Amino acid sequence: MAESSVQSLERAFDILELLCKSRNGLSIVALSSQTGLHKSTVHRLLATMCNRGYVQKDSETSIYHAGMHICELGGYITDNMDVIDRAKAPMERLAQQTGETIHLVMRDGNDIVYIHKVEGQTGGMRMVSRIGMRRPLYCTGVGKAMLATWSEEEVKKLWEESDIQKLTPYTIVDENQFFREIAKVRKLGYSLDNQENELDIRCIAVAMKDYSGKANYALSISVPLSRMTDERIEQLKEPLLRERDIIASMLGG
Question: Are 215 and 206 in contact (CB under 8 A)?
Fold first, then answer.
C-alpha cells in the first residue's frame, strides 16, 4: 500500500466498488470474504457509508446495495463537464439527422468511459452501452480514433500496458495488425469498430483534438450490423465529421 494512502479509506472504497458492481447486493459475509476483511470491520465501514447515503441496507434481508447518493454525485460530475454541455445539441442534431445512436466518450487512463449518449429513433436493437461504462481503448472505435492522434511511442506503450483480450471473435489482438489499423485511421480521419467491442454492432468514430493536437474525447455513431453497410458508413461520415468539428471548435480544438 502506498505511504500516502489511508487504510480505512482504501477498505471503504474496496467495499463500495464491489457493491456498485453487484446487481443484487452483497451481505456482510460475502463482503468479508471478497475483501479479506473481518466482518466487524466491514460492518463498521458499512454503517458509516449508510449514514452518508452511499450505501443502503435492506432491513428484511440484511443485504447491502450501493446508494443513490453515488448517482447524485455522478450527475454533478457530468453536469460540470463543459464538453457535455457543448456536445449535447450537436449530438441531438446528429441523432435526428441519422436516426442512429450517438456516443460521447472521454479517455480515462487506458480506457474510454461513456459520458453522454443520445438514442437513435431508427428501430432495432438497443446498445448495451450506458453512461459510466468503461471499455479498453485498443478495441473500440472511439479508442482507436483517439489513439490515432498519439505518437507511435505512446500507442506502443498503451498496447504493452493493456490487457489484450478477444472481447469478441473480431477483436484485434495481433500487435502488427493493430498498428496497421491505427495507421489506417490516421489516413482516413475516422475509425471503424467492426464488431470488435460488441457483436452485431458496427460504429464509425472520430476524435476531438485539443489545442495540442491530441484527443481525450471522441464521438461515434453506432449501428446494428444489418444496417451498417459500407455505403451507410459513407453516408454517416460527413455529418459526423461536421458535428465533431463544431464541438471541437467550442472546446478550443
Answer: no
pLDDT digits (tens, 9 = 90+) for 217-241: 999 999 999 999 999 999 999 999 9
Maximum C-alpha span of the chain? 61
C-alpha torsion angle, residues 94, 100, 101, 104 (rounded to 10): -30
- pLDDT tens digits for 85-109? 889 999 999 999 999 999 999 999 9
> Cα separations (Å) of 93 from 98, 125, 235, 240?
9, 21, 15, 10
Residue pair 208/241 in contact (Cβ under 8 Å)? The answer is: no
The owner of cell 470474504 is 33
Beta carbons of 68 and 38 less than 8 angstroms apart: no
Number of alpha helices (DSSP H) and beta strands (DSSP E) in the chain:
9, 8
Dihedral of alpha carbons 100, 101, 106, 111, sign = negative
